[in-house]
Amino acid sequence: MSQEMTCLGFQSNDTKPVKFTLPIPAVSGRDLLIKIDAIAVNPVDTKVKSGIQGQLESPKVIGWDASGTVIAAGDDCELIKVGDKVFYAGDISRPGCYASHHVVDERIVGFAPKSLSAVQAAAMPLTSITAWEALFSRMRIHPNIDKGKTLLIVGAAGGVGSIAIQLAKQIAELNVVATASRDESITWCRELGADHVINHYQLNTEYASLGINPPDYILCLGDTDPYFEQLAELIAPQGLICYVATSQKNHNIDLLKTKSAGIVWEFMFTRPMYETADITAQHQLLNRIAEMLDDDMLRCTMQQNLGPMSEETITLAHQMLVSGKTLGKISLEAIDTE
User: Fold this and answer.
1) Where does the Enoyl reductase (ER) domain lie (predicted)?
2) Label partner for 179 (CA 20 to 30 A): which of 27, 105, 211, 295?
3) Among 130, 199, 194, 188, which Cα is nearest to 168's?
């Protein structure tokens, strides 16, 4: 095995990635060394890139969605072994996966779906974890008990929304109201199982036109600030709103007081960042997602494969993400190491 790995990293927030090499690290404890087969891009990638201050001496490797093959395992690994095909989203407090090799804790790694290609598998971890945790960990939706309640998903055609619609229907049997504004995104949400699709630019008016009860749960996948007051008005008494995007303004949470409604946050890196006692839940839920994909209970949400990772394809992927008009996920194949 070569003693070096090829990486794509950023030295500033306004430049293309640069290609460079690093020594392949040895692994210990519960870490795995993965030979990357494919990655997918996410909005968090562009946000981390934009947060780079000044000119870095060493390029910063980002990216948190990958599939690959385990080629080394630490002495304490007990869930995953060398040779296993895996998929995972990683840990934002560690280097990312825009590289030929990557080190990751086995407790946040799942066995890759057998029915999917590497690029398809790479599209699924981050969005699946985010959607699963938002619905079942943060808002504590209980299958069977909460069957028939209503979930509103704001910004439902993107990566997380594409999985959240499916999980809400397949596992929780909720009534799902999705928001989308373009013909192709409306069609996409309906294909994934949304019961209603409304335009988020006229959110409250269009929701009222459905003639249904207020949403018991709201998953806001768009920017928090434009929607805060609207969602406080929409949410049902004793309902829960889950946000994923950092707010830039201060908001009046007293708007929710008389409804005894609550706000929760979903940040899928919380468990690995803090090594929470339940960190292995991400291994378990990824395995459940893989089973559902293999059993055709879930649809893979990869919509585009841009080819091998390179300076050009990563730049294009980021441009597509920033446009805010992507459906599902964008994947890339393994980096060319020559």
Assistant:
1) 11-332
2) 295
3) 194
Q: Which domain holds residue 194?
A: 127-265
Backbone torsion region of residue 323, taken as left when φ is above 0, otherwise alpha when ψ lies between -120 and 50, otherwise beta: alpha
Closest CA to 11 of 63, 62, 57, 64: 57
Domain count, the chain: 2
Q: With respect to residue 338, please indicate whether it lies within any of the assigned structural domains.
A: no
55 and 41 co-located in one domain: yes
The Cα 48–Cα 66 span in angstroms is: 17
pLDDT digits (tens, 9 = 90+) for 262-320: 999 999 999 999 999 999 999 999 999 999 999 999 999 999 999 999 999 999 999 99
CATH code, domain with 201: 3.40.50.720
User: Residue 268 CB: number of other CB atoms within 10 A?
Assistant: 28
The widest CA-to-CA distance across the chain, in whole angstroms, is 63
227 three-class SS: helix
Output the six-digit token pair for 29. Answer: 């404890």
Residue 23 maps to a domain: yes
Which of 215, 234, 265 represents a domain boundary (last residue)? Answer: 265
pLDDT digits (tens, 9 = 90+) for 9-63: 999 998 899 999 999 999 999 999 999 999 999 999 999 999 999 999 999 999 9
Q: What pTM value is reported for the model?
A: 0.95
Rg (the chain; Cα; Å)? 20
End-to-end Cα distance, the chain: 14
Residue 142 identity (one-letter amino acid) = H
Q: What is each CA distance from 60 to 68, 105, 210, in whole angstroms?
A: 21, 20, 47
